[in-house]
Structure to design on (914 residues):
């Protein structure tokens, strides 16, 4: 175990969090006024945590690279948020949510953390409703729920396909209330470029004002990283263009361990890549899988004819379609978890059954849903002898009410009407489940430095079920971190204001300045994007959805070489003392080029398949992921020692006391 | 496709800006408008010139970062979409496209096509929230039943992405559509009722203080809004404001 102490409280699982809250030290309200906290990132985790910390009485400084916290990438989450409310009376409970999450995580997350997440999930819904988040409602005025991939109960709360937006605006409004009270100072268009450690404790950050280029020093008694995930290491992903690993990577280089970097969630329902020009990928909400049926042609010649435009999907008879998820996984069908659905799509496309020009797409077909809903609507509207056409139209109206905005979005991008022809989808990088290692208090291996939401690793494991990310962001932000951080801060009440004149701040600022100067004076020949795209290609081809030893080793040496080339040949026009978006990108890509190598190294060392991490050498006869619980039931936490390739592995064993670890099956 | 692009370039807030003309080839109709600008920037960087700076982030129409006045229209020619969702198939080979920042006194230009929309932030901070503690001790969510119709209307108002197209489209540079969307969301829900009076007065006061113009019912805001926020919200805000003023 070495340096990793997870600080999981003792006692029965269901009592751990209550007991812990009762036992951790509190800070006197009068002292909270003298304590400053820095929050890097203002999405669901950072925004909600900043608001709550400010409400508790701490002075909070928030930083985000966007022009407003309301634009954090949490806003793009579509489907929903889970909570064990059991409003539908279908047998849900804290334990069941906990169990599903652990299982969906392929037994690679911490029992105590995941239970706590399930436990506070119901509070999140109450909190958001109180803030005026307009969740979907039934005609009786009560909240509506739907089910999501990998789950057999309806526990997902949603606001059409814009749940993330509404939840983020809720957290943002809570922040605004504190900004108005003067308890939060919001620094927008600012980017954290380094962490400052004084006497072994996180005491501040170096940030760049992205408008003026000014380098600023900000001190605090604790620093929280809530800057999201690192999926953009793949260049093409569903992440926002500015999403980056910089804050996480900088603290990693200063001593925070990076856990399970190779655990990436590949989302099965994205709009496929259409050409070389593409800058990012667009996700279609997973909720579509509730009603859409996924298929490819049964015969290779039909697939070929479709690719060449000689055959339309609607012309293919029912018996010539292969509903491969329903065939392989009868119990869950189209609702299998993301990793299973993604891999199954890749398997069919690799076998030659892909349906778009590049052969990398499968159909998501609403044809049966139109008819099913249409018949129901015809019945309730007492339309007798309705024609097929009429039924289809009625059904389309029902589907439009549910997913209209998603259908519209698809049509705008692909230029095809999904009411007339099935949607095409393909897996894409969506969410990263690795991240900064944190203990039960969400504290990293650097004292006083915390990490929340997607930036940490704690509750994810190898695969995460749909509608869990929003839940974790808000659980950490509203209900966990603001209390656990108090335990640390209670030891800091006599510290007083922290000076930014210390040699530590000086040194960190100089290092940041030197790197920025190096970029603008480099006079190379290739753009930042050129390197980012090449990195992304290596990552997707060799470290993506399925990996093997040979490719991973190649990837590691290719990334090393690319990094060297980047530093020699990158070209960044403009100066440092002005708005310079190329310079911003250069800093981010420099960090991705290091993270990418650690990512591949982590994937290489894990000789097993689990969840979103699939090693081709380790699979069952049926092609399912084959875990090795005996040797790999641990968190891989990497310590930086100078080069990403030389990182030192620390293991946190995962101990399951309350759950029986078994082979995941959705059959 | 080959295009002639006339783009507003401005070094910084203090500098004088001007339209510059660029020729761009190799544009694929399947590219989004912003991907087309990426291609232009790749060219410019290759030549050692500074790329055109524009705001963008999620590129799926929800974060509200992207702006751009394209041929005189916020977010370009198509309805109900943001610039990042606009695709080049909406243009023809050989077209000339004029690209400018959103123009409004309350949205000063920061650089090139990037404007400062923090005035929107301050309107929200003036009271665009419900004053509830984030303590986790709130009542059970289902103890506040809300008619589906009200919840849906509140949701439609809440889908505003704060991009500022309404301001850029308005001849008075009014922020009424934006402000009214927020006021409406809360006016339609039972949760924020007790502070409704204070909220609408404070938000309208801040809106005026930021230098936004008044509403003259032209309706350009609604037409250009990527999220189709309805003018009804302005009517609702006016009613709320009137009620609050005579209390």
């Amino acid at each position: 175990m070495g340096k990793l102490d997870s600080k999981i409280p003792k006692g029965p699982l269901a009592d751990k969090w209550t007991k812990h809250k009762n036992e951790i030290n509190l800070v006197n309200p009068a002292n909270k006024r003298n304590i400053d906290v820095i929050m890097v990132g203002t999405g669901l985790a950072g925004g909600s945590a900043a608001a709550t910390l400010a409400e508790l009485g701490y002075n909070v400084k928030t930083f985000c690279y966007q022009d407003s916290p309301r634009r954090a990438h949490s806003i793009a989450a579509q489907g929903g948020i889970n909570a064990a409310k059991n409003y539908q009376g279908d047998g849900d409970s804290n334990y069941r949510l906990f169990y599903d999450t652990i299982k969906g995580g392929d037994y690679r997350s911490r029992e105590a953390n995941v239970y706590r997440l399930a436990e506070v999930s119901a509070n999140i819904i109450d909190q958001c409703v109180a803030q005026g988040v307009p969740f979907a409602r039934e005609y009786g005025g009560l909240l509506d729920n739907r089910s999501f991939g990998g789950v057999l109960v309806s526990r997902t709360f949603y606001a059409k396909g814009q749940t993330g937006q509404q939840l983020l605006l809720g957290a943002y409004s809570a922040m605004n209330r504190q900004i108005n009270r003067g308890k939060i100072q919001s620094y927008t268009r600012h980017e954290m470029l380094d962490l400052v450690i004084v006497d072994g404790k996180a005491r501040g950050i170096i940030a760049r004002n992205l408008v003026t280029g000014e380098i600023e020093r900000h001190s605090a008694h604790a620093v929280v990283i809530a800057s999201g995930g690192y999926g953009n290491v793949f260049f093409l992903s569903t992440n926002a263009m500015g999403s980056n690993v910089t804050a996480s990577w900088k603290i990693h280089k200063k001593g925070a361990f990076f856990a399970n970097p190779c655990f990436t969630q590949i989302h099965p329902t994205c709009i496929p890549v259409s050409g070389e020009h593409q800058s990012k990928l667009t996700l279609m909400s997973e909720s579509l899988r509730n009603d859409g049926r996924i298929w490819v042609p049964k015969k290779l010649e039909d697939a070929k004819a479709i690719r060449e435009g000689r055959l339309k999907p609607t012309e293919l008879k029912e018996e010539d379609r292969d509903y491969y998820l329903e065939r392989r996984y009868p119990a869950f069908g189209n609702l299998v978890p993301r990793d299973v659905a993604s891999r199954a799509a890749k398997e069919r496309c690799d076998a030659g059954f892909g349906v778009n020009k590049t052969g990398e797409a499968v159909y998501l077909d609403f044809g049966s849903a139109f008819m099913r809903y249409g018949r129901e609507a015809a019945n309730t509207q007492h339309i007798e002898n309705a024609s097929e056409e009429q039924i289809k139209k009625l059904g389309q109206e029902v589907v439009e009410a549910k997913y209209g905005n998603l259908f519209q979005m698809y049509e705008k991008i692909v230029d095809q009407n999904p009411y007339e022809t099935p949607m095409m989808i393909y897996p894409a990088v969506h969410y990263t489940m690795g991240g900064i290692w944190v203990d039960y208090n969400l504290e990293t291996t650097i004292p006083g430095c915390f990490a929340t939401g997607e930036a940490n690793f704690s509750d994810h494991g190898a695969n995460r079920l749909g509608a869990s990310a929003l839940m974790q962001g808000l659980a950490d932000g509203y209900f966990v971190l603001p209390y656990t951080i108090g335990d640390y801060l209670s030891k800091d009440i006599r510290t007083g204001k922290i000076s930014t004149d210390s040699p530590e701040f000086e040194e960190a600022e100089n290092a940041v300045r030197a790197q920025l100067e190096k970029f603008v004076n480099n006079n190379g020949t290739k753009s930042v994007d050129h390197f980012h795209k090449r990195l992304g290609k290596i990552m997707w081809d060799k470290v993506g959805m399925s990996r093997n030893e040979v490719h991973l080793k190649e990837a590691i040496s290719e990334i090393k070489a690319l990094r060297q080339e980047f530093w020699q040949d990158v070209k960044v026009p403009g100066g440092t003392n002005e708005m310079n978006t190329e310079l911003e990108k250069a800093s981010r890509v420099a960090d991705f080029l290091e993270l990418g190598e650690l990512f591949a190294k982590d994937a290489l060392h894990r000789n097993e398949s689990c969840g979103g991490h699939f090693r081709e050498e380790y699979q069952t006869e049926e092609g399912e992921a084959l875990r090795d619980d005996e040797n790999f039931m641990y968190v891989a936490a990497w310590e930086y020692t100078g080069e990403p390739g030389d990182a030192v592995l620390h293991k946190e064993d995962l101990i399951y006391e309350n759950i029986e670890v078994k082979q995941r099956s959705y059959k | 496709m080959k295009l002639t692009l006339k783009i507003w370039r401005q070094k910084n807030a203090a500098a004088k800006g001007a339209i510059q003309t660029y020729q761009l080839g190799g544009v694929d109709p399947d590219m989004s408008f912003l991907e087309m600008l990426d291609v232009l920037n790749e060219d410019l960087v290759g030549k050692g010139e500074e790329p055109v700076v524009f705001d963008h982030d999620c590129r799926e129409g929800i974060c509200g970062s992207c702006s751009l006045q394209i041929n005189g229209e916020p977010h370009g020619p198509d309805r109900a979409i943001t610039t990042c969702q606009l695709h080049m198939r909406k243009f023809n080979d050989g077209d000339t496209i004029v690209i400018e920042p959103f123009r409004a006194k309350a949205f000063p230009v920061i650089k090139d096509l990037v404007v400062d929309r923090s005035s929107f932030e301050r309107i929200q901070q003036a009271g665009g929230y419900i004053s509830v503690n984030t303590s986790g001790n709130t009542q059970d969510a289902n103890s506040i039943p809300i008619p589906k119709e009200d919840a849906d209307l509140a949701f439609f108002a809440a889908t505003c992405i704060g991009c500022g197209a309404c301001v850029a489209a308005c001849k008075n540079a009014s922020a009424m559509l934006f402000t009214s969307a927020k006021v409406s969301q809360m006016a339609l829900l039972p949760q924020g009722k007790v502070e409704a009076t204070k909220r609408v007065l404070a938000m309208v006061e801040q809106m005026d203080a930021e230098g936004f113009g008044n509403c003259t019912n032209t309706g350009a805001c609604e037409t250009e809004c990527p999220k189709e926020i309805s003018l009804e919200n302005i009517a609702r805000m006016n009613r709320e404001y009137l009620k609050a003023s005579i209390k």
About this structure: The beta strands of chain B are 3-9, 18-24, 69-70, 73-74, 96-100, 109-111, 114-115.
